[in-house]
Amino acid sequence: MIRASYRKVRDYLDLPRVGDVPGRNIGLDALRGLAILLVVLGHSISNAVNLYQATTYNPLYYVSSFIYTFHMPLFFLVSGYVLFGKRIRISDRAIRLLLPFFAWIPFYWMVNRYVHHYPWPVKFLTTFKDTVLQPGAGLWFLPTLFLCSLLLIPVRHIEKRRGWLGELYLLAAFVAVNLIPYDRLGLAQVKYFFPFVAAGYLIAKHWSAIARIPEKITDEVLLGVSALFLLLFTVLYYYGRIYSLALPFSIHDLFNGPAAYVLRYSMAGLGIVSSVALIRSLKTSRARKAFAWLGLVTMDIYVAHGIMLQVTIGSGWVKVFVSVLTGIFLSLALSFLLLRRWWVSAEIFIGIKPDVKEETPEAHPPDRQE
Predict the structure, then answer these.
(1) Which residues contact 359 (CB under 8 A, 6 or more apart)?
(2) What digits encode the pLDDT tens for the residues 286-311?
(3) Could you tell me the pTM of the whole model?
(4) Is residue 222 part of a domain?
């Protein structure tokens, strides 16, 4: 009875189903699902407590710092992996990423103006300008990923000449964008996050070699790296060496503070590997599929969860818990009950058409348990 009712709801709302699209891989979708959960959790914590006034002894501040060490680098790495081998069309990426970015600006402005009731007038044109120009404002992940995608366009053509030239180009692109003396229009984020996009691309490129590593050795390495990550984070946090929220962060910091620069990238990398270990450790297919399903609707959650977090009650951990629930379920309700019902709203606010599936990760999973 329950299953029959669920199938009716699923068919009526046209809910995506894990594994329906040939070539998708549950492990990679599960990583993306984990990433969006961490995004919502991180924003839920900042919605419950002022992190700029919180002390390091506050458990919420500890959890927030832990999440921000690696969750967005994980998102960018998965995106780079997915883009390997694809022909990147600027118009398609603009519809997918930039259209929702601009479409949601008025709604976030209304929340700041009429829900937060700021003590000063929040003018729409000022908000629009700041969202477009200022690093970290609005749905910044979307234009940042768009710019990173553009940097990947030449690599396919370069690799046709010599495969190893792709690695050389990615390094040159990273250095070149970091030398641009401008941090607006999302360039500040590109300077920091592009290496993770490039890393994901290269992992997909060399996956056949990586997959030949014996599974036992892979599991041991993942376990060791995860333990190292937890230990290092705890020690560095205790000594006040974790600055995961600091932006802009560019190659210039390598010369100003080489230790902090290397530490920042190293901790993000260790966190990403630990995320892979977590997904691989899920022994039941149901658990992996739950994360993978969220990986199919990351855009639905991402674009609206900031607004939905305002519908909360309580304080402290209670408010965090309620915020996570509202951020996920209300965003999905808005998407499947309204936005995805018409192709115009689906394309404008989510960047997709209802009958078009999300971009398919190529069949080189970072998780061989499938």
Answers:
(1) 82, 86, 96
(2) 888 899 999 999 999 999 999 998 88
(3) 0.90
(4) yes
